Amino acid sequence: MLDTLAIIFGFLLIGAVLWETFETIVLPRRVTRQFRMTRLFYRWTWAPWRALAALRGQKKKRDAMLSYYGPLSLLMLLAFWAITLVFGFAFIHYGDGEKIAGAIYPSRFGNALYLSGTTLFTLGLGDITPASPLGRVVTVLEGGVGFGFLALVIGYLPVLYQSFSRREVTISLLDARAGSPPTAYELLQRNTGPATCGFEALTEVLAHWETWAAELMESHLSYPVLAYFRSQHDNQSWIASLTAVLDVCALSMVGMEGVCQYQARMTFAIARHALVDLSQVFAAAPDKSGADGRLSSEDLVLIRQQLSASGFRLSDDDAANAELTRLRGLYEPYAISLARHLALDLPPWIKHSTVKDNWQTTAWARQQQPSASADTKHAVADEQH
């Protein structure tokens, strides 16, 4: 009876892993089933990793540690699947009885586990072999599964990193257009005016980000692990860029003369769609309590004043304010909860201090700043003496 249960359990374990692999790698759509081994894996590993990173004092070190999780979790997930498959086939060999030739371990399950491991990874050592019809069939099946599993992994990684690279290219292009981190005010200010042929540059940017948001939704719903892959710079992220573009669309839709309202609505729709669907994937319930912290009434007045001084014509009556509040309520709660889950920062609507863009700074300049400050202090001290 115990042997039969071991065989049944082994087949169930193998079937569960193969189905998880199919849904995660092969199936090009979001899986709505609640219980999934992969979902449990990320839930049980991300929370401790995030808590461990929070112990790092400096933000730069904390972000560096969080950046390791995405690629490392992918390798750990593949290893988890492989180990589970080894144990699944080992239970079948164990349930087949003592029919193993060349047993080298005193433990019956140890021999079954060794046979399963050498077969799945296609080592072909031959020092221990099955001696029953069922054992031989299972061994051939396991060898085929191991070969197919390796092929899936080899094909999976390039597709994943290509999607990541396409995402980051557009985020990097936003650096000069919207600042670091990107803000709605900078994106509007830098992409309008005589130097940019009026509002044509802004319309072109929004059209490009409409396509980017659609690609983001498709790739990250198919491969949710991409959401854990962080950008090259600490002050950039896919969710910060997406939120800044949504801010611009919301402000344009409220009433901004010269801006293409149609393009703003189209970009807003697909960007909001991507944000909501990804929040559902990570079970990040919308948080409506933190939306007021992103845009205060004083900041909104400041944005309108500075944009008006630059030649913008904005609606600032009560109806416009109410519409802006409504539009923000459609996406900000999801952005806040998703950013909290991924331990990422959302950008402000406007920066109150001058911050250089990433393209304007270098590592050498940052290294020389402390020494320059020290030289200044020594010069002042010499003058006092």
Description:
- With 385 residues, the chain is mainly α.
- The protein has 2 domains: 2-154, Helix Hairpins (Orthogonal Bundle); 160-364, no CATH class.
- Helices cover 70% and strands 1% of the residues.
- Helix 3 (59-95) packs antiparallel against helix 5 (133-178), helix 8 packs antiparallel against helix 9 (261-281) and helix 9 (261-281) packs parallel to helix 11 (318-342).
- The longest helix has 46 residues, at 133-178.
- The N and C termini lie far apart (93 Å).
Question: Which terms summarize this structure?
Answer:
385 residues, mainly alpha, Helix Hairpins, 70% helix, elongated, disordered C terminus
How are the SSEs placed, and which strands pair?
Layout: H1 2-26, H2 37-54, H3 59-95, E1 100-101, H4 108-120, E2 129-130, H5 133-178, H6 184-190, H7 200-222, H8 238-255, H9 261-281, H10 297-309, H11 318-342, H12 363-384
Antiparallel strand pairs: 1-2
Which class do the helix and strand fractions yield?
Answer: mainly alpha
Q: What is the distance, rounded to the nearest whole angstrom, between the alpha carbons of the first and last residues?
A: 93 Å
State the helical fraction. 55-70%
Shape: elongated
Largest sheet data: 2 strands, antiparallel
How many structural units, i.e. domains?
2
Strand arrangement across the biggest beta sheet: 1-2
Order of helices and strands: HHHEHEHHHHHHHH
Oligomer kind: single chain
Average of pLDDT: 84
Q: How much of the sequence is in beta strands?
A: under 5%
Number of strands: 2
Tally the helices: 12
* Poorly predicted residue ranges: 371-385
- Alpha carbon gyration radius: 28 Å
